[in-house]
Amino acid sequence: MSSIIDVQNKILNKYIRFAANTEFGRRYGFEHIKSYHEYKEALPLTTFKDYDVYREPMKRGVPDLTWPGSASKFAISAGTTGKPKDIPINADRERSDKLFLRRVALSYISKNPNILKLMGKQLSLPGTIEKDPDYPGVLFGEISGHLALMAPPILSRVQVIPPEESVWMNFKDKLEIAVEKGVKSDIRVITALPSVMLRYFQLALEHTGKDHIGDIWPKMRVLVSGGEPLPSYKKHLIKLSEGMGLHFIENYGASEGYFAFNTEQNREDLKLVVDNNVFYEWIPNPSENRDELSKQPTIPTWDVEEGKPYGMVVTSNSGLWRYLLNDVVIFTDLKTPRIRVAGRASDVLDNYGETIEALHVQEAMDKVTEELGGMFSSCTVGVVHNSEKDSPHHVWFVQWAEKPSDMKEFAKAIDNELARTNRSYMIRRNGKAIDMPQFYELTKEAILEWQQEHKKVGAQTKFPRMIHDHDKCRSLMAKCERLA
What is the residue extent of each domain of the chain? Predict the structure, then answer.
């Protein structure tokens, strides 16, 4: 591969020329832009709202708005916060996604050439695709659903549920059918969100009365995930399939595009794909405040530093220009390059000045479980304030694979670790502005009930890392208590 500078500038210059005659290109004078510096000076950072003026005409089939041609498909996000977002998928974006997934497959096969072990059934749990009578001929749905319909026919024939059927099902029905048919099939590969994989494993064990995944699918080989970080769930998945030597493939992407992947079993960082139709910019030390974040300066990929957190900005053939994502990544290797997804810029609890980021939560849980024992799949933190006489306190909802023997000791250790690493938290704890954290065990039943109550559940619905609403936090507390 050519140097990062060359391949990234080639993508950017190609896009600027290609889109010069679109409405967006004319608005920002693309025909006069000759370099990255000029591009950065001409365009502000954009967010989803900046495309509102184009979105309705796009759905009506108006061409050449932010990208040449038109789009008959829209990827609907299912993130942890805010309203769903619909991102146009045109023919160029489809080709890029197919190329990305082909590269992932070839990377895995190059390291594991004996593909005969994969010759069996595959289970994919993609998102749902829907039609809207207000927009004839346009398909709306999660990106995994659109990609499932693009899969080669040979893959469709080996699926437990053919994609042309599964993408039209609601998630609840899809999961029930997947369990019923799946436990009778020789599944070798599963593709889904990590949290959905875990739920599927748990449901399959309950359905069969087995204790180990190998008793149901002894020849299962590969788990392919995306949509949320795999490391949070990997230990739990390995525990349920202990001794099977499953291989994990992780993709990092979103409705806006696919960015990185990992097929190596001995590492958890991801290879950033810099030569597949996405131009990247990075915001050093991104602010958790969205308005401040959009005003921070950006740098190109060839100027990043290892170990520093960066906010992610993309220019892509979805017709997104200097588009601000909510993700924060850390570069672990500059030559390849490779990244670790550290969380989301808005994943911050700062109700009382404590400034706890999702990254702080993950690091504290990792350190304390290593010291005191325990194994967890996911952790969500909220905050409640019961009365004016009491100090508010954080509520930690943890999905355990192995629960620590002494939760009081564990809570105290978490409190001490946060105070050691987070000065804002330490000051507020010392001043009794916030009280000791409280822990609840999070079950799959509690997760599902809470999601159904507070948001639409789909194959790509992610459980939030932070719950900012007090009432929603209390609602989850009540469900955990009832289902314990």
Answer: 4-89+269-344, 94-262, 348-483
Secondary structure (3-state) at 310: strand
Backbone φ and ψ for 288, nearest 5 degrees, come out as: -80, -15
pLDDT tens track, the chain, 484 positions? 579 999 999 999 999 999 999 999 999 999 999 999 999 999 999 999 999 999 999 999 999 999 999 999 999 875 444 456 899 999 999 999 999 999 999 999 999 988 888 899 999 998 889 999 999 999 999 888 999 988 887 778 899 999 999 999 988 889 899 999 999 999 999 999 887 888 899 899 999 999 999 999 999 999 999 887 888 788 889 999 999 999 999 999 888 999 999 999 999 999 999 999 999 999 998 887 777 888 899 999 999 999 999 999 999 999 999 999 988 899 999 999 999 988 777 677 877 768 787 778 888 999 999 999 999 988 999 988 776 557 788 999 999 989 999 999 999 999 999 999 887 788 778 867 788 999 999 998 898 889 888 765 555 567 888 888 888 999 999 999 998 7
Task: For residue 404, report the phi and psi dihedrals to the nearest 5 degrees.
Answer: -60, 150
Specify the CATH number of the domain 94-262: 3.40.50
Looking at residue 45, the DSSP 8-state letter turns out to be -
Q: Which residue has the tokens 């204790």?
A: 211
76 three-state secondary structure: strand
Closest Cα to residue 168, out of 185, 202, 150, 145?
145
